[in-house]
Every structure is written in structure tokens, then in C-alpha cells.
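Escalation from tier 1.

The customer reports that the assembly of two entities below gives different C-alpha cells on two consecutive runs. Tier 1 could not reproduce it. I'm attaching the input and our single run for tier 2 to review.
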Amino acid sequence: MIETPYLLFLGDAPDQLAAKVAQGIKDWRPENAVGQYRMDGCKADLGLQDMDLLAAKAAGAKTLVIGVANRGGVISPEWKKVLVMALEEGFDLASGLHNLLREEPDLVAVAEATGRALHDVRVPEVEYPIANGVKRTGKRCLAVGTDCSIGKMYTALAMDAEMRSRGMKSTFRATGQTGILITGDGVPLDAVIADFMAGSVEWLTPDNDEDHWDMIEGQGSLFHVSFSGVTMALVHGGQPDALILCHEPTRTHMRGLPGYALPTLEDLRDTALPLARVANPACQVVGISVNTQNLADDDARAYLAKLEADMGLPATDPFRYGAGKLVDALAAI
Amino acid sequence: MIETPYLLFLGDAPDQLAAKVAQGIKDWRPENAVGQYRMDGCKADLGLQDMDLLAAKAAGAKTLVIGVANRGGVISPEWKKVLVMALEEGFDLASGLHNLLREEPDLVAVAEATGRALHDVRVPEVEYPIANGVKRTGKRCLAVGTDCSIGKMYTALAMDAEMRSRGMKSTFRATGQTGILITGDGVPLDAVIADFMAGSVEWLTPDNDEDHWDMIEGQGSLFHVSFSGVTMALVHGGQPDALILCHEPTRTHMRGLPGYALPTLEDLRDTALPLARVANPACQVVGISVNTQNLADDDARAYLAKLEADMGLPATDPFRYGAGKLVDALAAI
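Tier 1 run:
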């Protein structure tokens, strides 16, 4: 287990989205985030107090969490200086990057010399089985998106919180580094060997009470050519009973893929549902979760109302307006 | 590079399909297969001469190739005895199993003591990029199937051979252990880390002459819940201009998944083509490849004729009747 609370390292994040790991921790475990550490040129800001290592140490922080991702997941030389100093100051390090802390000889040497821990939360520590497709008891909900980084994790976390507050049986099932840092366990799906992806999702969401919901964190998008295989493994390994469609209406192209337009929500529904029914013929699309952060309140409400009329499904922004409407839909099936 | 020729190890294969690695080598590089080694209980037979290690050595074999796969890819204790003896007799070992030769301390020790090589062809030896989705020059063809182990590799190899015989520019691109053992290179896709699957396929099929075809070996099936994520990465990373639909009409359920029915060829077309057009809007379904090994000749021909009438696409069994019809269709686009 990773020692809390954290100092959230934002490095030289090129934009706010790059700091989504830190943002997730701050939003869902604010009690664990004592402050943020930003380097020159950092374009992300969580609204937490900026702290240097000594100030964070004085405030009680135990672990420096790398809360920023750059394309390819590399630990840059600029970051390295801060990480080495953090170890020297008595922090553990935790990271979900592809480039592992344990692959950096200087970090390993300093961690050993100082007795500090290096946590690579994206490294699978289980030998996952090959998926067997056998129907499991209990219910599962999966958020699927028109694009990556569009609010799927938030949707599942918000619905899980709402369900628990209603006394429903629900477990958030993390499939990415942020979710794992938030909950303390899960499957780092994008680091799993291809043949075992669907099996790892089956492992993560085992037999359960008939009225228990696994709220599975989505990854990628069936329409994102870089990561669609990971999404496919969730759709089939997760055996979802319910799909939530996720969208960001102002995005002009698929994240990281200039020239690739986003699909419509109708495209997403018509693609994801038949694929999900291969593994679970009873699967239904139950609602729509829209990330409206780039819309004014009036525009967001109008957009959601039109979506509901056009698609005949409840639509909301769970971060902005709460997840109640989506949980109502889930409770009704 | 793996030293040839080979002695093909069939172990205690439970059925003929389990020996498809050896079958592929025998069919496509018969000059490299001096014989087969079968243990008690082996249910596979390639029609090659059965040889013990000494006889194979005398016949010139340099490498014992594990030509059999069991579910999970484990090296059993029964096999181990033969593998150790083979090293002692001067054979190298080559394997495409998940359970690596290099993970077995006894094999490593004997290989070191005897100066022999252990080739794990399924281990990626390249740091693949994340897919960028950028359109590449040249043309690509991908075989997709209603199920796994249905003839996708054979289809691509047969079409590649036919295209070369016509003077067309074609390269078979291996994505699995058999293909890699046959061609000497490729991407062991099912062993690639999830995030890099589509990128590895882009890497395997780079820019090329406008009239050059990459004949990409398919894997899994979009309808096979254990492996559909791997297939998805091929559909998007491969950017195919042409899809060949593959089917085996007598199979009663998805391989390894009792209770899962096979989709129809129409289902496969209607699922695969829209997904492929995300990465390449010009993609077309150009033909159907049917594995008719379980049908009599008359039945096979009648089945293919009906398929052609029903679906409006050329249909053949490239192993039985040649790949000419499929290559005609490819040459026409």
C-alpha cells in the first residue's frame, strides 16, 4: 500500500488534461492531497497550494505521486532532479508511467540508500488468466466513450459514490493508474500483455451478489485507433449489463489523432452495444454522460435536454450535475 | 536467426488444431521440416516421418521447434524431459509459447552447459511506438475471422505466394509465433503490451510502394471474447485497404468458448468493415476465405457457390482450391 497523504507532482505538464492523474486524486481523495508541486512551464493547476518538498514534508506528505502523464510515459531528466531530491527528503515515490521508477538506476540507488519505496502502480503484479467468457453472477456497468480522456473514470466514480450513498451495493473497479492510486487496487490494463487483457477484466470483476454492481473504469475508445484494443477487452471481459455512453461535445478531433473526427453518440451506441452483446446478450445502453466543462451552464443544460430527446436516454454531466439520473437508470434495469 | 532445418515437436497434442504451429511450418516451409517428434498420447500427425532425436540429428535437423500449443502455453514436465535431451544431443530449441524457454532454469542451465540456443520467438524484442494513426503509403490486406484458428494465416500466406508468382509486390507480415517461425521476423502481437498493440502493427507495415501489398496475418476474432482486443488492434493499426472474411462452416461454437455461437459472415462483414473504416475510410471487403477441411469436395463447392451468390463476393478455400480468386479481387481494387 502507498503511504498517504500525497504531494502531487505536476512537473512541466503541457496542459490540464496531462495532469488528469493528479486531478483524479484531488477530486476523489482530497484528504490525501496536501499540495501540488509544479515546475517551470507547468500549464496545469489543481487549485491546491503550491509547495516545495520541505513545505510538503512539514505539512505531513509521505509520498510524492507523479500526477502527470506525457505521451509515451517517459521520466524526463528535468523531472529526475526533483524525484531524487524527494527521495533524499524522505518521500516515497508513486507513479503510473510506462517508464518505471524501478527502471531508473539512479532512483533505485537513492531509494535503497535512503530506505524509501518506489511504487509503480501500472505494473501488473498478478498472472492474469486467459478470459473464459463464462457468465458471472452480479451486475456490471461499463462506461464507453467517443474518445479517450473524456470522463469515463469520473462517470464510474461518481455513479459508485451515488450508489453507495443510496445504500446500493457497488464497487468501483479501477483499470488505470489513476483509479489504482485512488482505490489502492485494480488492473493496470494498458500494461497487461495482449492475450490476457480480457482475462484480467474477468479477474477484476468476479462473481458477486446478484444485486451488486461493479462500476468498471473504461479505457480508450472503440474509435481511437491507438487504444481501441484495450477498450474491446473491457467490452468483452467486463460482460457489462449496462453501458454508459461518454462524450465531450466541443472536442474537434480524437485526442492525439489530428485528422480523426469523433464519432457521434449514435455511432458509439450502434458499435458498442452489439459488441457487448456478444459477451452478454442482456446488455443495455442506459444513459449518457457528457463532459460539459467547456460549455456554459445554459448551453450544457440545453445540450443535455436535446440529447435526451434525440436518443431517448437520460443524459447528464455527473461531475457538474451529479450522477443521480444515471444511477436511477441503472437501478431500473 | 533460427538454424534450419527443424525437427517438429508435437508433444502430447490433444488434437490436430493444437499442432497448428508445426502444421504451418510443414505446409509453408516443407524444406525446413525433416520430421516430427510425437509423445505417447499425441493426437496430431503432420504426415511427416516420426523420428527420435538421434534419427533427426542424423537427418540434419539443427533445431527442435515446439510446434504444439496448449491452453495457457505451459511447458509441461513431460515435455521437459525431451527438451533437455534435445539440448544434450546438440539441438537448439525454438518456441512460441507464453511459458518461455528462458524462464525454465533447467533448460537455461543445460543450454549454457551445452552451448545451445533457446529461441523464444513470441517475445517482443522491439520497443514499439504508440500508434499515431497517420496514413501510410502502399496497400494492406487483413484477414478477419468469425472465430480463432480458422485459416487467417493460411489465407494471407496463400495469397502472398500467389501474388509473388504473378509478379505482384507482396510481403507476408507475421503477427504470431507460427508466422514468425516461418518468415524469420514479425510482431508477436499477443505478447505485446496492450497500449502498444496497434503501434506494433503500424511498425510492422510501414510506408511502401504504392503498388505493394502487405498481407497481414490476422489474430483472434472480433467475436471471440478472449482475444477480440488483439483483433481490434490489427483492424486499426493495420489500416487495411482490403479485408478478407474467414470462416469454418462446421464449427459448432467459438473455439474454447462452449456456449458462444459463431457469428455469420454477414455479422462479421457488418462489424469489421465500419471499424476498419475508422482508420481507413477506403477499406473494402474483397472476398471470403472458407476453411472447408471438414466438407467433402462437392459440399465445399456448393457451399462456396451459395456464399458467392448470397454475399456478392468471391469465395474460395485457398488451401484447397488456390488463392487465385482472392488475388484477382485484390488486384481489381
